[in-house]
Amino acid sequence: MRALMALLLVPCLAVGQVYRWVDDQGQVHYGQQPQGANAQAVELRPQVVERDAATQAREQRAERYFQARRDEQAKATQARREQQAQLAKACAQLRAQLASMPAGRRYYQPGADGERRYYTDEELDAARARLASQLSERCD
After folding, report:
1. How much helix, strand and coil, in percent to the nearest 5, is found in the chain?
2. Which neighbouring-strand residues pair with 30?
3. Residue 77's domain spans which residues?
4. Helix or strand (DSSP H, E) at 104
5. Are 131 and 107 in contact (CB under 8 A)?
6. pTM higher than 0.70 for the full model?
7. What would the pLDDT profile of 42-75 be if each residue is shown by its tens digit?
8. C-alpha dihedral over 13, 14, 17, 23, to 10 degrees?
9. How far apart are the C-alpha atoms of 138 and 140, rounded to whole Å?
10. Could you tell me if residue 7 is inside a domain?
């Protein structure tokens, strides 16, 4: 209710004296201060627009539609951000894995019997190539 009262009072507060005058080049100007002897006071009347029930209903439907669109866009933006965060996390993991496999080191996997099974140089090269390929496909 207060907002409605404020909206009704704004035109009354904004009304001031406005003057109209024509300069030496023949251009018409408007301003709050009279410029020259030929300045004339202009009467300003606030415009009141009354809407019928059908127009108000249409405006409410349009507002609901636009609010639904804004909500959809916000959800899509949030989903995109979450997807980008997941991708960034996966890329960081891939980079960390690739960085943890420098050349010249030996890597193993514990076997079922508890003994270490060392990877061959070809297996390590293939693993590094696979990680680099995944990085280039997903992250670059």
Report:
1. 55, 15, 30
2. 20
3. 59-101+119-140
4. none
5. no
6. no
7. 888 877 777 888 888 999 999 999 999 999 999 9
8. 170
9. 6
10. no
